[in-house]
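ARCHIVE CARD
Drawer: 12
Card no.: 0347
Subject: one protein chain, sequence and derived structure
Cross-reference: see card 0346
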Amino acid sequence: MTADGRDRLIPKEKDQEGAEKIQVAADGKTVGWLVESSACCVSYPVPLELVLWRNGRILRRVHPGMAVWSWAFLENGNKVAFRMSPLHGGWSGECVLLDTSSGKTLDSWDHPVDANGNDTEGDSEEPGWVSQIQ
């Protein structure tokens, strides 16, 4: 629903089974959500795409190639950060910071892991923007 009370129906993405973690940026004009779709080898839908919508149209579709588990708008909706990782395993994944308008990757950060791929603590400094991912 828009700020002036109008309902907006946004068409489903191809193979979409659901949507989750819908957020509105501080600018009040940019909206985003995770698209849940079927994935190989699991019986449940997985968030495989982040859709960004602004001013009545889809601005960007982000397909990182892994599941997107959490995300957040930053800087009044001008940037978006998300955490992606495989469906199974000990690795917490990679965090990515994008420019919302261009889709350009501005920064990325991998959670440190040991030789077995398990998360470790305190091995590298996390950029400040990573802590804003919800």
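Annotation on reverse: The first strand starts at residue 16 and ends at 24. The CA atoms of residues 70 and 134 lie 5 Å apart.
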